[in-house]
Write a structure and sequence with these properties.
Distance between the termini: 57 Å
Order of helices and strands: EEHHHHHHHHH
CATH architecture of the largest domain: Orthogonal Bundle
Radius of gyration: 20 Å
Number of strands: 2
Length: about 200
């Protein structure tokens, strides 16, 4: 395998790289295997990070940082396990590290506000105000609570999936989501919105 050739699994009329083989080679330091994993998982990592940092430009930069950390940590990767959950944990750490270094107000922009859903029959002026106040309340959450809330409430992932992504226990996820929702509710009430 060290000759640069790729192994493929035959699926009816589709050729898919054998990612298990790439994982083994990646752990051994094979650059081509790393590039294959990068190409295969780049989009997913970008999406995970974007949901946390809420900025496409920042997310693109953090994808590079994530894969740099993945490459440096390759010796700790267990090739018998799936690559995606391991990569997601690293991506979440990178996103949380970035959030720790930021002030919450810097995360609010028109793009974030536009991404919040609105009902079709709602008054646009009222909806925009509620969306803005909700985004502000969300941005004021502590970064650990915000990450758990994004994954569990917005992405609707199971507590187990969130725990794996953040590298914490299911109980810790439940506690963080509960605290995040309680803080959001209090903040919105202070802003005059009854959730």
């Amino acid at each position: 395998m060290g000759d640069g050739s790729q192994t493929f699994i035959k699926i009816p009329d589709i050729k898919v790289p054998d990612l298990d083989a790439a994982c083994v080679l990646f752990r051994q330091g094979d650059v081509e295997a790393f590039e294959s994993l990068f190409r295969h998982h780049q989009r997913a990592v970008y999406g995970w990070i974007l949901r946390i940092v809420r900025s496409p430009t920042v997310a693109e930069e953090l994808v590079v940082e994530t894969f740099w950390r993945i490459y440096k940590a390759r010796a700790r990767f267990d090739a018998a396990r799936e690559f995606a959950p391991w990569a997601r944990r690293i991506a979440m750490r990178v996103a949380l590290d970035w959030l720790r270094a930021q002030r919450p107000e810097t995360l609010l922009n028109d793009e974030v506000l536009a991404s919040l859903p609105a009902t079709a029959d709602a008054n646009p002026a009222v909806t925009a105000e509620i969306r803005q106040k909700t985004a502000l309340a969300f941005a004021r959450l502590p970064h650990k609570l915000r990450a758990a809330a994004v994954l569990a409430v917005i992405e609707e992932q199971s507590h187990k999936e969130v725990a794996e992504a953040l590298g914490i226990s299911v109980t810790a996820v439940k506690l963080r989501v509960f605290r995040a929702l309680r803080l959001l509710r209090k903040d919105l009430e202070r802003q005059g919105i009854t959730p």
